[in-house]
Amino acid sequence: MNCPEWEEAIALYAGGDLDARRSVEVERHLAVCAGCQIFASGIMECLEAIRAGHRQEISGAHYAAVRARVLAKLQPAPWWRRRWVPAAALAAAACCAWWLAMVNEKLHQPVPPPQVALARPPAPPPAADPARTVPALPRHPVHPPHLRKPITEEPLTVRMVTDDPNVVIYWITNPKGE
After folding, report:
1. CB 45 within 8 Å of CB 38
2. Measured distance CA(104)–CA(85) in Å, rounded
3. Nearest Cα to 117, choosing from 172, 73, 80, 67?
4. Which of 33, 62, 135, 159 sits at a 20 to 30 Å CA gap from 77?
5. pLDDT tens column, 14-67
6. CA gyration radius, the chain
């Protein structure tokens, strides 16, 4: 069994990374501890295998294969696979839904009725006061149509409401009385 407190020092000793004073201490411990001797020999064998692997020449085809894999990882993803595309599509869909809701609301707003003049019923005749009677005025003769003056200069619009709320009748006359 090796000593856990000596493992780091033994690994540094096997790699040649200790100063002279500490190297002497590790050699003294290795002389008396069999577990640490086995641990040190395992580290030395691993380091030797690593150094031997570096001495072998690597073929050009191996370099080309590694280069192709690295370049494939560095290629950017197509635009439809990028992270911002779903977010942009969601934002566009939300804008379209909002716009459609606004248009739908405008289409379903009630249309105000047109501004028209309402005909007033004629005023009731004044109550006759027997004490104050006015003699009847003579009637004037009716003039032919070409001598008559129009009463109003703008069209008259009369709105007639029926029992059915969906039916409203408008009667519009022109200024000439036609």
Report:
1. no
2. 28
3. 172
4. 62
5. 888 888 999 999 999 999 999 999 999 999 998 888 888 777 777 788 878 888
6. 55
